[in-house]
Write a structure and sequence with these properties.
With 276 residues, the protein is an alpha/beta fold. The chain folds into 2 domains: 26-104 and 195-275, 3-Layer(aba) Sandwich (Rossmann fold); 112-194, P-loop containing nucleotide triphosphate hydrolases (Rossmann fold, 3-Layer(aba) Sandwich), CATH 3.40.50. It contains 11 helices and 10 strands. It has helices spanning 3-16, 67-75, 97-103, 120-125, 136-141, 144-163, 179-191, 209-224, 236-242, 260-265, 267-274, and strands spanning 29-38, 41-51, 56-60, 82-87, 90-91, 105-108, 197-201, 228-232, 245-250, 253-258. The strands form 2 sheets. The chain has a 6-stranded mixed β-sheet, with helices on both faces. Strand 9 (245-250) and strand 10 form a beta hairpin. Helix 1 (3-16) runs parallel beside helix 3 (97-103). It is globular, with a radius of gyration of 19 Å.
């Protein structure tokens, strides 16, 4: 199959999948006895917990605890060795990543990977690939419907950049941005996918105080609009401020879970991670 045909087929398949609704009852994500091993190295060991709808759940733990591994399994970039993962009542641990994305799970990585030869606006517009009907062939022919769709995508991208406070750099290139601004562009691009579940891997890293406050306000707004956020983060003060619940991993095992107040007072968490 030609590369262009394969790409078009993938987009068609993604659009044919019904995204998981933000509404409904019961947990949005469920992990049941999930384990990941690399030979004799156990990265995740028999972890079970759930993520409720419209909540911000933060995963904390020391380096090597398995936090990023858990996110990668959720987005389909890594398959568990054993156990099951459910998203909106659908088992996803055997699904390819693009199908999970079409269901409404979007991950923002630590390494933002912006396109350096594209403007900020164009970078954010690429996030529409999950739901866009356009293709390279249609765009080259400048069909009226495709042109209209491109305008809609552009307007949506401007809205997302406004949300993260970056309308002043629409036509800049990534090289001109600070690290914090680059991360916010990456977040705007992730939001262009219209996720039901937003997976964030250390989104606060490299942000200054003003950017941290802006991001926290934005995450609360997204939650109030029905989005569910699963986030890995090292800044414990931020976690305790923004999270509804916290999961603590330690050497791949579930050490504790609960509200921020519960986690602050958990003696095992204090001894292994939070300190005095």
């Amino acid at each position: 199959m030609a590369k262009g045909t394969a790409s078009m087929s993938s987009r068609t398949e993604m659009r044919s999948v019904t995204a998981v609704s933000r509404g409904g009852h019961g947990p949005l994500v469920e992990y049941s006895g999930v384990s990941v091993s690399y030979g004799e190295l156990v990265a995740i060991s028999n972890v079970s917990f759930s993520v409720e709808r419209s909540e911000i759940l933060c995963i904390i733990g020391p380096n090597g605890a398995g936090k990023t591994t858990l996110l990668r399994m959720t987005s389909g970039l890594l398959r568990p060795t054993s156990g099951q993962i459910w998203f909106g009542g659908l088992r996803i641990d055997t699904m390819p990543a693009h199908r999970i994305a079409a269901l409404g799970a979007t991950q923002m990585f630590q390494d933002i990977q912006l396109f350096d030869n594209m403007s900020v606006l164009d970078n954010v517009m690429t996030g529409a690939h999950v739901w866009s009907d356009g293709g390279l062939i249609g765009s080259s022919l400048r069909l009226a419907a495709i042109v209209d769709e491109e305008r809609r995508i552009r307007r949506a991208a401007v809205e997302q950049l406004s949300l993260v406070g970056l309308t002043g750099v629409l036509h800049e290139f990534p090289a001109a941005l600070s690290w914090g601004e680059r991360k916010l562009v990456g977040l705007a691009r992730a939001l262009m996918c219209r996720p039901t579940l937003l997976l964030l891997d250390e989104p606060y890293g490299g942000l200054d105080t003003e950017e941290i406050d802006r991001l926290s306000r934005m995450l609360r707004t997204l939650k109030s609009e029905g989005m569910t956020i699963l986030m890995v983060e090292h800044l414990t003060d931020v976690v305790m401020d923004v999270a509804d619940r916290v999961v603590v991993l330690h050497y791949g095992e579930l050490l504790a879970e609960g509200t921020p107040d519960t986690i602050r007072e958990d003696e095992r968490v204090i001894a292994t991670y939070l300190g005095d």
